[in-house]
Every structure is written in structure tokens, then in C-alpha cells.
Design brief:
globular, alpha/beta, 9 strands, about 15% strand, about 325 residues, 3-stranded mixed β-sheet
């Protein structure tokens, strides 16, 4: 699948600091070739990784308990507030665009496996512990994303949509490192087919580009591609030569990589060429044609920018755009 962006593109991961969705929308539309629907977790648990994901579920309901989010039989105040914040973000993005629809727009959602580690069952353990609950969660999330994408298409009919699934916890899920509710043991890892199938259920809702974001070490690249991901979103700082073979095969197959090259918290951005060095070293290790670099890599922050200062977050997105531009210059 040919991605809808051109060479040297840049985008954000999702989260930004602050609580004003209109200001956040103006920032991403003004700074990025591939703007995204901003996420503002500073507004509280109804707008963080868990709350945003749970806001998308259909016919599954969750409420905040002292221990965190938990499935409940009926919708309550917390679920309504999470959905309301998502609706406000969509309205703000549409207002900020002011009729000038971007060529490409990315929206993010918590992936099914990470979401299963963030919400509890009625009896108190995580949804990950129950295979039936996990299947229901994936189906519910898939239906919610269908509706979410349809809403975006109605608001931005001339825009190519990109779906990003956030799965930072997937490596820990696959390695059986997620603790039980008691904390004295860990939950059993799903088998490979189940892990792939639950992802495929959600990835399959979108016929455009679907990127899976995993900023943890040892991202399961092969599994993500088997599940239908058509792009990868990775943190360059955690990649090692052990990841080279699978990543090189993916790039050879035309899979674009959204590569985190800018720190997600306040840092010195005065030397952008130094920030580009890791991707050039990676390309050298992979033995790939340098001319393919600007077509294959989209520059991003390493992860979300929620922990950054407002001024740095804007600078970080501007730096991503400039670094993407520099990738289009003649290869060294």
C-alpha cells in the first residue's frame, strides 16, 4: 500500500501538553505535514491512554474505581465524560481546520492488547486475563473505530485518513510480564495466533494506512505485519542490531516507518543533524539505498509529548518537520 504522504514527511505520536483542544489542533495543523488528532491527558484519566481507548468501545462499559478503570454492566458518568472529551477534540480539530482540509490526517487509538492491561474485569483482574473478555474487547474496539473513522470522513471528506494503534505494552504482554491484580504473579502470554488475530480484528477496520506504534524495546515487527499493519511506528533509541533483519525486510517490502528521533520531553534541539544520525546509522546497518530514506521514514517524536512544556512541544514538532525536509536532501 502506497502511503498517502510524500517524501520527508513528519508527524506526532498523539499526546500534547495542556488542556486546550483548540490550541493543540492549531499547533498540529500548523507544524506538521501529517497532522494528527491531538490527545490531552493533562485533562485527567478520561483523556489519557486508557480513557481515550475506552471512549471508543461499543456495548462495553467501563467506570473509574479506586484501582482504575473497570468494566461495569451499564454506562456511567465516567464513560460519558471520556466520550465527551473525544467529541470536543474532534470539534476543535474541525474548527481549527476552518474548511481547509489537510491532505492527510492521522488519528490514534489504544490498541487492544495495551487496552486489556489498563482495564479490569468485574472480579478485579485485568481484561488480559480472560480470553473471552479479550475477544469481546477487540470486537468492541473495532466497531468503535469504524464509527470514529466514519465521523472523521464526514468532517474531512477530502482527507486521507491514517489510523495509528498504540501498543506500548505489547512486548510485555507477549513476554508474560504483566502483573496480576495481586502483584505476586504475572499473567500468561497469549499464543501467537491469538495475539495476531485480536490485532487483525482491529487493524482490519480501516482500508487505508494503519500504523502500529510500539515505543518499547523489542517491538514485535513480524507479528504486527502478519496482523495487517501497513506501517510501523517505533522509537529509534530502543532499536538494536537484533531488530535489524525484521525491520530491513519490512522496509524492503515497502512498509514505511514512523521513526521517533526527537525526545518526548524537553531537550536541546540545536543540532538536528545529530538527531538524524541514528536513522542514518540504522540505514547503513540495514544496507539500504540512502535514496529510499525520505520515502520510507516519517520523522516523529520518540513518544507522546504530554510530559513536555508547551513551548518545547511546538519546537519538537517543528524540528520533526525540519528533519524530514533534511532527509530529502541529496544523500551523503
Amino acid at each position: 500500500m502506497t502511503p498517502p504522504w510524500g517524501p520527508g514527511a513528519a508527524t506526532g505520536i498523539g499526546s500534547l501538553p495542556g488542556t486546550d483542544p483548540l490550541e493543540a489542533a492549531r499547533v498540529v495543523l500548523g507544524e506538521l505535514a501529517v497532522p494528527h488528532l491531538p490527545e490531552l491527558p493533562a485533562r485527567g484519566p478520561h483523556a489519557d491512554l486508557a480513557g481515550r481507548g475506552l471512549a471508543l468501545l461499543v456495548d462495553l462499559h467501563a467506570d473509574l474505581q479506586p484501582s482504575g478503570w473497570r468494566f461495569v454492566p451499564r454506562p456511567g458518568r465516567d464513560a460519558r465524560l471520556a466520550r465527551d472529551l473525544l467529541a470536543r477534540d474532534l470539534d476543535a480539530l474541525e474548527e481549527a481546520a476552518d474548511g481547509a482540509h489537510p491532505a492527510v490526517l492521522k488519528t490514534q487509538a489504544t490498541g487492544p492488547w495495551t487496552l486489556s492491561t489498563l482495564v479490569e474485569l468485574h472480579r478485579g483482574d485485568r481484561a488480559l486475563a480472560d480470553h473471552g473478555a479479550m475477544a469481546d474487547l477487540a470486537e468492541s474496539l473495532a466497531e468503535g473505530l469504524r464509527r470514529h473513522l466514519a465521523d472523521l470522513r464526514a468532517r474531512f471528506p477530502q482527507t486521507a485518513l491514517v489510523l495509528q494503534l498504540d501498543e506500548p505494552s505489547l512486548p510485555a504482554v507477549l513476554a508474560a510480564r504483566i502483573p496480576t491484580a495481586s502483584g505476586f504473579a504475572t499473567l500468561r502470554a497469549p499464543d501467537r495466533q491469538t495475539a495476531r488475530d485480536r490485532l487483525r480484528t482491529v487493524i482490519g477496520v480501516h482500508d487505508g494506512t494503519v500504523a502500529v506504534h510500539c515505543c518499547a524495546p523489542s517491538p514485535p515487527v513480524e507479528l504486527l505485519l502478519e496482523a495487517g499493519a501497513t506501517a510501523l511506528s517505533l522509537d529509534a533509541a530502543v532499536l538494536t542490531p537484533r531488530d535489524d533483519d525484521l525491520l530491513g525486510e519490512a522496509v524492503d517490502r515497502g512498509v514505511p516507518v514512523l521513526l521517533g528521533l526527537v525526545p518526548g520531553t524537553d531537550a536541546d534541539l540545536s543540532d538536528l543533524d545529530a538527531r538524524l544520525a541514528p536513522v542514518k546509522r540504522l540505514w547503513h546497518r540495514l544496507g539500504l539505498d540512502p535514496a529510499l530514506l525520505p520515502q520510507s521514514v516519517v520523522v516523529t517524536p520518540a513518544c507522546g509529548l504530554a510530559g513536555a512544556s508547551p513551548s518545547y512541544s511546538r519546537s519538537a514538532l517543528a524540528a520533526c518537520t525540519e528533519m524530514g525536509r533534511r532527509l530529502t536532501e541529496a544523500p551523503e
